[in-house]
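Lab meeting, item 3. Inverse folding demo.
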C-alpha cells in the first residue's frame, strides 16, 4: 500500500467520519434545545394571556355582585315591573327614572356597550345605551344570544362572542332578586369583545406562523377566535375535529379539561409546537402555537451550512493531502538517487536538501556520513588541530571544575552562614581562592543615594573599590555591568575591558589592576534586584556561556540564602505574634461566651437533629429547662407540623452547601402546648469537628398579631370605603352630565364638591393601600405590558377635569407626537401620574395654571419618555427637595392642603421600580416642575 493511500485512510478514519458523526449528534441536541426553548416561550405567552382574560371576567363578576346588592335596584325594580302596563303611574315613572340613572352610571363607570334589565320572562325592559333602546326594548334576550337568559337565571353567565355592528360583542347575565329572594329578572352587561381580542392579539416572538387564539365551547361545537385571522372565526363540531384529527390542543382542553404543551396538530391540520390552557372563569380554552418547521428553521439552516462547510473542508483536506504526500515522495526519490551516487565512490557528493522535516534530517545525516568517510583520510595538520582543540577543551574543563568547586563550597556556606555579612564575605573568598578569580565583591543598591555600595570584597586589597563610582541613575556611571545587572535583573558580561565602550568610566583604574574581563550577576529578593555579585579575571574573553550559567547558579544560591534568612526572621516574629494571638483569642472567647449566654435572643447549635448547645433565653422562650432541650433526641417535635417540611428543607440546603446562611419564619410548640411564631437566622458551621447548624431565634408572635390586625384593617377599608366611593363618584359624575337639563347651579356646585372630595378620598385610600403592599412585601410586583403613555396621560386629565374646573385652573397640554411605547404597569403608572397632577391642582391657587408635558429624551445613549407637571403654586424650598418624597411628609407651610403625604412617595417608588427616576425643579415662590423619566425602547430596564 502506498504512502498516499495510507494517508487517505487516516483522513477518513480519524477526521471525516468522527466529525460527521459529531455534527449530526450536535444538531440532534440543538434541535431538542430549540424545541424546549420555543415551548417555554409559548407557555409563558399563554399563561400571561390566560391570567389577563381570567382577571377580566372576574372583574365583570365583581361588577355583577355590586349591582345585585344595590338597594336602589331591590327597591325600584319590583315597582317598575309591577306597573309596566301602567306607564303613567307615578311610582312606575319614579322607579324607571332611578333605574335608568343607575344603569347609565354603571355603563359610564365600567365602559360597557350597554347595561340592560329583563323581566322574569327574559324580555328586555330597560337599556342604558340610548342608541339601542329602539332596537332592544321589548325583544327577548334569547333573540340576541339563545342561551343568555337561561344561563343567567341562577348564576353569572358569559355568552359566546357574536358580531355587533362593526365589531364583536358578548353578554354577561345574572339573576336579580327582591328582598324576599323572589326572582325579578336578569341584569345584562353587553361587553365589547374587542377587549378579549386585545389580550390575545400579540404574537411577539412567534414568527410568521405563530398565533394565539381562543376556543369557545357551544355544546358539541367550538368557535375558534383568532384576532389575526378573523376569517377563521366559525363554529365547528367537536366530532368533526376529532374525525379530521386536527385542533388536538383545543380538543384535549375542552373535552378532557386538561392543560398541556408539546408537539401537536392545529385546527388547520399543521404540525405545530403549542401550549394550551383552560380559562377557569368562563370555561374557554386558549392556545399559543407556531408551525413546527418554522420553530426549528434556524437549526435546519445551520445544518445545511455545516454540511456545506464540511464538504468544502473535505475538498481542502484532499488537496492538502495530495501536496503533502508529494512533498514526502519527491525527497525520498532524491535521497535514493544520492545514495546510489555515493555508493559508486563519489564521497564528496552532497544530497543538499534544505527541508526541516525528518527526511531533511536524514538527508543531512547522510551528508555528514559522507564527510566522516572523507575525514578518515584527513591530513596530519588536521590531526594537530584536533590535538590543540582537545587541549583547549581540557583547559575549559579545568576552569569549569573550579566553578563546580565554587558551587559546592557555596552550598556548605549557605548552611553555616548566620548573617548576611558573613554570607557575602565568604562568597567572595570562595570565588577568589577556589575559583581562582582575580577579585570578587558584593554591592547593594541604595535607593536614597541612587548608588551601589560595596558591602563585602575579597582580593581587593589594592584599593580598586575606593576609586570607582557606580550610579543607578541614567548617567554613564550606570551603564556598566554592575549598574545594568541591578537595574534590569539580568547578568551582564564584559569580556574586553580595554575595548568595551561601556567600561569607559572605569577603564583606566581597571587596566591598572589588570582586570581584563568582568561579569555582574544580580542578587534577587522577592522578584526585585537588591544588589549584584561582581567577579574579575586577568584574561580577556574569560567568561563563556557554560561558566556564566554556573556563576548565575551560584548567585541564585546566594539570593536564596538571603531570602531564607529573611523568612527565618519573619518566622520567629510570627511565632511570637501567634502566641500573643492565642492568649487574646482565649480572652475573646470567654467574653463571647458570656455575651451569648446573656443575649436577648435564643441561640442554639444543632447537630444530627439534636441540640448540642442552647442558651437560657431560648429555654425561657419555649418553656423548657436547658437539660430538657439538650436531652431531646429529635428537635422536630418542637416544630409545628405544618412547618416541619419547610424547616427540614432549609436545614438540608445548608448542610449540602446550597445556602450558607438563611433567614425565615416558622411556628414552634411551647412546653405548655401554646404555639408561637419565631424568626430564625442560621448558618452552616463546624462544631467539635462535625457539620452543624448555628442560629439565633426571636419570638415574633406579637408582630404577627399586629400584621394580621393591619391586614384586617386594609380589607375593611377596601370593602367598606372603596366600593361606596366608587358608586358615589359614578353617580355624581352622571348627575353633573345633566347640568343642561335644569339642574340648579347651587346643587350642581355641591355635587361637584361631593365628586371632588370623593375622588380625593379614594386617591388617599389607594395611596395607603399601595404603600401597605410595599411595606408588607418590601417590593412592588409589576404587571408589565406595552403601554402608550400619552393614552394614560389623557385618561388622567379626563378623570381630574372636574377638579381642575372646580378651582378655575388653566390646564395647558403640550403632548409630543410619536412617543415610543414603554413597558409598564399601567395601573401603577396611572396612579403616579394622577398623584403628580392632583398635587399640582392642590397647591395651585384658584385662577392659576398647570402645564402637562410629554416628550422623548436621550440621556447618555438611553431613551426615556418624560412626563412633566408644572404649576404656579407657592414652590418648594431647597431644603425640602429630598424630604417631600418621604412617606407621610407634609411641609409645615402646607398643613391646610388636603393630602395623605404619600402621593410623591408613591411616584418615586413606582418610577424607580420601572428603572426610571424623578427630578424636581423649584424655588420658593416660583412654582414647581416635577419630571418623571420612564425608560423606553431597547434601553428599557425594569428593576
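The presenter then showed the designed sequence:
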Amino acid at each position: 500500500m502506498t504512502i498516499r493511500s495510507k494517508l487517505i485512510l487516516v483522513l477518513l478514519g480519524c477526521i471525516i467520519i468522527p466529525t460527521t458523526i459529531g455534527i449530526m449528534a450536535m444538531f440532534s441536541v440543538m434541535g431538542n434545545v430549540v424545541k424546549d426553548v420555543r415551548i417555554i416561550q409559548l407557555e409563558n405567552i399563554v399563561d400571561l394571556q390566560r391570567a389577563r382574560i381570567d382577571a377580566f371576567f372576574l372583574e365583570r363578576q365583581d361588577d355583577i355582585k355590586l349591582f345585585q346588592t344595590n338597594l336602589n335596584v331591590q327597591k325600584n325594580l319590583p315597582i317598575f315591573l309591577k306597573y309596566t302596563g301602567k306607564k303613567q303611574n307615578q311610582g312606575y315613572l319614579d322607579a324607571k327614572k332611578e333605574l335608568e340613572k343607575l344603569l347609565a352610571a354603571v355603563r359610564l363607570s365600567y365602559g360597557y356597550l350597554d347595561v340592560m334589565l329583563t323581566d322574569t320572562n327574559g324580555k328586555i325592559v330597560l337599556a342604558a345605551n340610548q342608541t339601542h333602546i329602539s332596537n332592544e326594548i321589548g325583544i327577548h334576550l334569547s333573540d340576541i344570544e339563545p342561551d343568555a337568559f337561561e344561563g343567567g337565571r341562577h348564576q353569572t353567565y358569559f355568552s359566546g362572542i357574536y358580531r355587533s355592528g362593526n365589531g364583536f360583542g358578548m353578554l354577561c347575565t345574572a339573576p336579580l332578586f327582591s328582598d324576599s329572594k323572589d326572582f325579578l329578572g336578569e341584569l345584562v352587561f353587553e361587553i365589547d369583545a374587542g377587549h378579549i381580542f386585545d389580550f390575545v392579539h400579540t404574537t411577539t416572538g412567534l414568527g410568521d406562523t405563530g398565533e394565539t387564539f381562543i376556543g369557545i365551547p357551544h355544546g358539541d361545537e367550538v368557535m375558534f377566535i383568532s384576532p389575526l385571522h378573523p376569517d377563521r372565526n366559525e363554529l365547528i363540531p367537536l366530532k368533526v375535529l376529532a374525525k379530521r384529527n386536527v385542533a388536538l390542543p383545543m380538543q384535549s382542553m375542552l373535552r378532557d379539561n386538561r392543560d398541556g404543551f408539546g408537539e401537536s396538530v392545529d385546527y388547520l391540520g399543521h404540525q405545530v409546537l403549542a401550549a394550551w390552557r383552560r380559562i377557569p372563569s368562563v370555561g374557554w380554552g386558549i392556545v399559543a402555537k407556531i408551525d413546527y418547521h418554522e420553530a426549528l428553521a434556524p437549526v435546519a439552516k445551520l445544518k445545511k451550512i455545516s454540511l456545506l462547510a464540511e464538504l468544502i473542508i473535505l475538498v481542502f483536506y484532499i488537496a492538502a493531502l495530495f501536496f503533502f504526500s508529494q512533498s514526502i515522495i519527491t525527497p525520498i526519490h532524491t535521497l535514493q538517487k544520492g545514495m546510489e551516487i555515493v555508493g559508486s565512490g563519489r564521497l564528496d557528493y552532497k544530497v543538499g536538501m534544505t527541508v526541516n522535516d525528518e527526511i531533511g534530517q536524514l538527508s543531512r545525516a547522510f551528508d555528514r556520513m559522507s564527510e566522516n568517510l572523507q575525514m578518515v583520510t584527513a591530513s596530519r595538520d588536521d590531526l594537530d588541530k584536533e590535538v590543540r582543540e582537545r587541549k583547549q577543551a581540557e583547559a575549559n574543563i579545568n576552569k569549569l571544575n573550579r566553578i563546580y568547586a565554587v558551587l559546592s563550597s557555596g552550598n556548605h556556606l549557605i548552611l553555616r552562614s548566620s548573617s548576611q555579612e558573613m554570607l557575602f564575605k565568604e562568597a567572595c573568598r570562595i570565588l577568589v581562592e577556589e575559583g581562582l578569580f582575580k577579585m570578587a565583591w558584593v554591592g547593594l543598591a541604595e535607593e536614597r543615594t541612587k548608588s551601589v555600595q560595596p558591602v563585602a570584597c575579597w582580593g581587593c586589597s589594592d584599593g580598586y573599590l575606593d576609586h570607582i563610582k557606580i550610579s543607578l541613575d541614567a548617567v554613564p556611571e550606570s551603564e556598566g555591568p554592575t549598574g545594568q545587572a541591578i537595574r534590569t535583573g539580568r547578568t551582564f558580561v564584559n569580556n574586553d575591558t580595554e575595548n568595551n565602550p561601556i567600561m569607559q568610566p572605569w577603564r583606566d583604574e581597571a587596566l591598572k589592576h589588570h582586570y581584563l574581563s568582568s561579569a555582574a550577576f544580580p542578587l534577587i529578593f522577592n522578584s526585585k534586584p537588591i544588589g549584584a555579585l561582581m567577579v574579575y579575571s586577568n584574561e580577556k574573553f574569560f567568561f563563556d556561556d557554560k561558566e556564566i550559567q554556573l556563576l548565575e547558579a551560584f548567585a541564585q544560591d546566594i539570593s536564596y540564602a538571603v531570602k531564607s534568612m529573611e523568612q527565618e526572621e519573619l518566622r520567629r516574629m510570627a511565632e511570637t505574634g501567634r502566641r500573643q494571638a492565642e492568649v487574646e483569642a482565649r480572652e475573646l472567647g470567654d467574653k463571647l461566651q458570656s455575651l451569648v449566654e446573656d443575649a436577648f435572643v435564643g441561640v442554639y447549635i444543632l447537630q444530627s437533629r439534636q441540640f448540642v448547645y442552647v442558651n437560657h433565653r431560648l429555654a425561657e422562650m419555649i418553656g423548657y429547662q436547658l437539660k430538657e432541650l439538650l436531652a431531646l433526641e429529635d428537635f422536630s417535635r418542637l416544630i409545628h407540623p405544618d412547618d416541619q417540611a419547610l424547616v427540614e428543607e432549609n436545614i438540608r440546603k445548608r448542610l449540602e452547601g446550597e445556602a450558607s446562611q438563611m433567614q425565615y419564619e416558622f411556628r414552634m410548640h411551647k412546653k405548655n402546648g401554646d404555639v408561637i411564631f419565631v424568626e430564625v437566622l442560621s448558618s452552616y458551621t463546624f462544631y467539635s469537628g462535625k457539620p452543624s447548624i448555628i442560629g439565633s431565634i426571636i419570638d415574633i408572635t406579637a408582630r404577627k398579631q399586629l400584621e394580621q390586625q393591619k391586614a384586617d384593617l386594609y380589607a375593611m377599608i377596601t370593602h367598606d370605603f372603596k366600593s361606596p366611593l366608587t358608586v358615589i363618584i359614578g353617580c355624581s359624575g352622571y348627575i353633573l352630565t345633566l347640568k343642561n337639563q335644569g339642574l340648579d347651579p347651587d346643587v350642581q356646585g355641591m355635587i361637584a364638591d361631593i365628586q371632588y372630595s370623593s375622588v380625593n378620598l379614594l386617591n388617599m385610600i389607594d395611596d395607603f393601600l399601595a404603600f401597605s403592599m410595599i411595606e408588607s412585601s418590601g417590593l412592588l410586583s409589576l404587571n408589565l405590558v406595552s403601554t402608550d403613555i400619552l393614552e394614560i396621560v389623557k385618561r388622567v386629565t379626563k378623570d381630574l377635569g372636574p377638579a381642575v374646573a372646580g378651582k378655575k385652573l388653566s390646564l395647558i397640554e403640550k403632548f409630543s407626537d410619536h412617543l415610543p411605547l414603554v413597558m409598564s404597569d399601567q395601573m401603577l403608572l396611572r396612579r403616579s401620574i394622577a398623584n403628580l397632577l392632583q398635587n399640582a391642582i392642590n397647591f395651585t391657587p384658584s385662577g392659576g395654571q398647570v402645564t402637562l408635558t410629554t416628550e422623548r429624551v436621550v440621556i447618555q445613549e438611553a431613551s426615556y419618555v418624560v412626563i412633566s407637571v408644572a404649576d404656579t403654586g407657592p414652590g418648594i424650598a431647597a431644603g425640602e427637595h429630598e424630604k417631600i418624597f418621604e412617606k407621610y411628609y407634609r411641609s409645615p407651610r402646607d398643613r391646610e392642603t388636603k393630602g395623605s403625604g404619600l402621593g410623591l412617595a408613591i411616584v418615586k417608588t413606582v418610577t424607580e421600580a420601572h428603572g426610571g427616576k424623578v427630578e424636581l425643579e423649584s424655588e420658593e415662590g416660583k412654582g414647581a416642575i416635577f419630571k418623571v423619566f420612564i425608560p423606553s425602547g431597547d434601553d428599557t430596564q425594569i428593576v
